[in-house]
Amino acid sequence: MNAKRAYNRRTDEERIAELQAQIELLRTRAEEKQRPDGPVLKDVPRVATRLKKFAEKCNQFGRADLANSVYAFVAGLERAAEIDPTTESRRPRRARED
Predict the structure, then answer these.
(1) Is the alpha carbon torsion for 76, 79, 83, 87 positive or negative?
(2) Helix (H, G, I), strand (E, B) or coil at 97
(3) Is 90 exposed, middle or buried (0-12, 13-18, 19+ CB in 10 A)?
(4) H helix or E strand, kind and range, residue 56
(5) Residue 51 and residue 67 in contact, taking contact as beta carbons nearer than 8 Å
(6) CA-wise closest residue to 85 among 93, 94, 95, 75
(7) pLDDT in tens, 71-89
(8) Is 52 exposed, middle or buried (0-12, 13-18, 19+ CB in 10 A)?
(9) How high is the pLDDT of residue 63?
(10) Is pLDDT of 98 > 50?
(11) Is residue 29 within 8 Å of 17, Cβ to Cβ?
């Protein structure tokens, strides 16, 4: 009644690709640590989360006007800090189209 396990060995190319992805992640983190505004950007997701909870509470107590203002502020904050709200990771900088 002992079922044998099925092992899937990774190829050398798969292992190399995984290690390269890890190296890229570490490089990105090192660059972020060297930024002078790094501590500020690190706190943006936490602040945005708290503000969103506050906006939900505003909606619960019938203050949709406050909730809308808070949501607008959070959107601007995330855009200014270049944070992707779905993944909460930093987006690469885009060239401005002016």
Answers:
(1) positive
(2) coil
(3) middle
(4) helix 38-60
(5) no
(6) 75
(7) 999 999 989 887 554 554 5
(8) middle
(9) 96
(10) no
(11) no
Task: Tell me the one-letter amino acid at 7.
Answer: Y
The answer to whether 90 and 84 have CB atoms below 8 angstroms apart is: yes
Give the list of residues 6+ apart from residue 70 with CB closer than 8 angstroms, or none: 51, 52, 54, 55, 58
DSSP 22-47: HHHHHHHHHHHHHSTTHHHHHHHHHH
Is there a contact between 78 and 41 (Cβ–Cβ < 8 Å)? no
CB 58 within 8 A of CB 67: yes
Average pLDDT score over residue span 30-35: 80
